[in-house]
From TrEMBL:
NCBIfam families: adk, PRK00279.1-3, PRK14527.1, PRK14528.1, PRK14531.1, PRK14532.1
Protein's name according to its UniProt entry: Adenylate kinase
GO cellular component: cytoplasm
Assembly behavior: Monomer.
Gene: adk
Sites where the protein binds AMP: T31, R36, N57, L58, V59, G85, F86, P87, R88, Q92, R139, R150
EC number in record: 2.7.4.3
Length: 196
C-alpha cells in the first residue's frame, strides 16, 4: 500500500497516519516529524528549517524533496508507506512522481481529509492548551498567529495539490470533521474496498 494523506494543517493527517501504520504495517513518512527531528538534532537541515517552521512557512522544496528521497529508499518503505504532509507544493508532487517512476511503483490512493478552517483553529488551540496543561512545551507553530500563517501557506501553495491528484483519478475525499474514530473507520473501509 502506497498512500498520501492530504489536508490542511491540523486536519488530522498525523493522527490518522498513526492508525494506518498499525493496520497496514507500513511506515509513516511525516515530513513534519522528519523536519522536527532535524531541528532537535541541530543538523544543517534543522538549522535551516527551524526559523521557517517557527514562522509557519513552508520549508524549501529542495530540502523536503531531499529528505523524502532518502527516507523512501530505506528498507522498511519497500513494501509501502504513508506520506503524511508531503507533497505540499506542485514542485514536490512532480518530484514525487519522478521518484516513484524511477522505482517502477505507483500510488494506490491519495486520501484528502476535508475540514473547515474554523474547526482547524479550534483543534490546534485545544492541542496547545492540553500540551500546556501537561507542563510540556507547546509547538511554536501552534501559536494562533503562526497558525494563521500556516493556513495562508496551505491556501496559497498546497490547496492546488488535490485538483492535481483528482485530475489523475486518484483522489479519495474524506469528511474529516467527525470524530477521530469515525474518520479512521471511513478511511479504512474506503481503502479496504480498493483491494476488491
Ligand atoms: P506537520 O507536522 O505536517 O503539521 P500539521 O499539518 O499541523 O499536522 P496534521 O494535519 O498532521 O494534524 P494532527 O494530526 O497533528 O507540519 C508542520 C510544519 O512542517 C509545516 O508548517 C511546515 O513548516 C513544515 N513542513 C512539513 N512538511 C512540509 C513539506 N512537505 N514542505 C514544506 N514544509 C513542510 O492534528 C492536529 C490536532 O487535531 C491534534 O491535537 C489531534 O488530536 C486533533 N485531531 C485530529 N483529528 C481530529 C478529529 N477527527 N477530531 C478532533 N480532533 C482531532
Amino acid at each position: 500500500m502506497r498512500l498520501i494523506l492530504l489536508g490542511p494543517p491540523g486536519a488530522g493527517k498525523g493522527t490518522q497516519s498513526a492508525r494506518l501504520v498499525k493496520r497496514y504495517g507500513i511506515p509513516q513518512l511525516s515530513t513534519g516529524d522528519m523536519l522536527r527531528a532535524a531541528v532537535a538534532a541541530g543538523t544543517p537541515i534543522g538549522l535551516q528549517a527551524k526559523a521557517i517552521m517557527d514562522a509557519g512557512n513552508l520549508v524549501p522544496d529542495e530540502v523536503v524533496v531531499g529528505i523524502v528521497a532518502e527516507r523512501i529508499e530505506e528498507a522498511d518503505a519497500r513494501k509501502g508507506f504513508i506520506l503524511d504532509g508531503f507533497p505540499r507544493t506542485i514542485a514536490q508532487a512532480d518530484a514525487l512522481e519522478k521518484m516513484l517512476a524511477s522505482k517502477g511503483v505507483k500510488l494506490d490512493a491519495v486520501v484528502e481529509l476535508k475540514v473547515d478552517q474554523s474547526k482547524l483553529t479550534d483543534r490546534i488551540t485545544k492541542r496547545a492548551d492540553e500540551t500546556r496543561a501537561r507542563g510540556e512545551p507547546v509547538r511554536k507553530d501552534d501559536d494562533p498567529e503562526v497558525f494563521k500563517t500556516r493556513l495562508a501557506a496551505y491556501n496559497r501553495d498546497t490547496a492546488v495539490i488535490s485538483p492535481y491528484y483528482k485530475a489523475g483519478g486518484r483522489l479519495i475525499e474524506i469528511d474529516g470533521m467527525r470524530s477521530i474514530d469515525e474518520v479512521s473507520s471511513e478511511i479504512e473501509s474506503t481503502l479496504d474496498r480498493l483491494d476488491e
